[in-house]
Amino acid sequence: MSVIKVSANSRTAAVAGAIAGVVREHHFAEVQSIGAGAVNQAIKAIILATGYLANDGIEVMFVPEFVDVEIEGKVRTAIKLTVLPRPAAPEADAQPPAD
Asked: Could you say which DSSP state residue 90 is in?
């Protein structure tokens, strides 16, 4: 699976569809962007993908982190957003362990 790279000019709906498709197939997606405009488009795409996946009963979350990438011989700092299914919440009627 490859990283979904987002630029400031990326179409939000197209990126959202790609994120949703990758999450459905691989159970996680990595979205990478460099710069404020690109990060903005990536976040908007994740919000849209959240809605697409909710229709399939998949609730997601994302984890942001900095990563260094090399572009044309220069190291740049990118933001990687890993989109994952949200862990299931414990059952409301589950009893705590006895002491």
From this structure: P
Nearest of 40, 30, 18 to residue 67 by alpha carbon:
30
Q: Is the pLDDT of residue 53 over 70?
A: yes
End-to-end CA distance of the chain, in Å?
46
Question: Using only C-alpha atoms, what is the Rg of the chain?
Answer: 16
The CATH class of the 4-85 domain is alpha beta
Domain locations along the chain: 4-85
Give the pTM.
Answer: 0.85
86 Cβ neighbours under 8 A, 6+ residues apart: 59, 60, 61
pLDDT category at 88 given cuts 50, 70, 90 is confident
Q: Residue 75: how many CB atoms within 10 A of its CB?
A: 8
pLDDT at 92: 59
